Predict the 3D structure of the following.
Amino acid sequence: MAATTGAQASTADLSSSRDGSVDTIDPRDRLIVGLDLPSVEQAEAMVARLGESVTFYKIGMELTYAGGLSLAERLVGEGKGVFMDLKLHDIPNTVERAARQIARLGARFLTIHGYPQSLRAALAGVAGSDLQLLAVTVLTSCDDADLLEAGYAQGVKEVVARRALQASEIGVHGLILSPEETASVRKLVGPTMQLITPGIRPAGAAVGDQKRVMTPALAIASGADRLVVARPVIEAADPAAAAEAIVRDIASALSLVGKINQRRD
Ligand code: C5P
């Protein structure tokens, strides 16, 4: 039987919005739907089904290798936000040149694995463009045992904190991290970096291969700026209704955080 999510944070965690105020991104624009689909036709059909319920899409490796770059440009042309989740990591020359090519698409975000060499190279590649870089700290499918198996001496918490600080010092625009680490990383990197969290599961949803998960409301309440959600939306019987429900969760979490902070002021 698939494991399911449960409530994982106390109300004490629901007060972590920064500078005592909820920032200004519209709740709908905080949901980024991952188009993890095998063909451009299926992705286009999903975008049509989702309609106005979704304003921001993530295009990952599967769809990119199936011809998704032209879809990215079309979505940008239709006014949608586009996040290219290509997780670059290679020798600096290759990363810089690849990032420069991706910057031509007009997308908003690009992921780079959080190795300082690759982050610096990608920053050089996107210089002069509007493409913002997101450093992947540790994949949300990994736990301490996975890092140990891969040769790391430290656990997830330590590696995420180290990579978050390094990315912040290098000047990267944002971080991909698990919702479980958002609150502690926000304290480390300050208010300006965008914190974007995959590993989101509405209460009761199947976890699948993710290991560090949280509900949409709790992730927002813990300080995530935007959420990446793929399977819980694109595999839903009614994807638009699933997206709307997540947007409602985001909006109510933001309003709860706002009320808690008002009471404190
Ligand atoms: O289906 P699900 O909501 O688990 O999909 C999460 C999406 O976020 C996938 O496209 C995955 O590649 C991406 N992602 C992730 N963990 C990261 C970075 C990206 O799950 N650290």
Q: What stands out?
A: The domain at 26-264 is CATH 3.20.20.70 (TIM Barrel). The first helix runs from residue 40 to 50. The two ends are 46 Å apart (CA to CA). Confidence is low (pLDDT under 50) at residues 1-22.
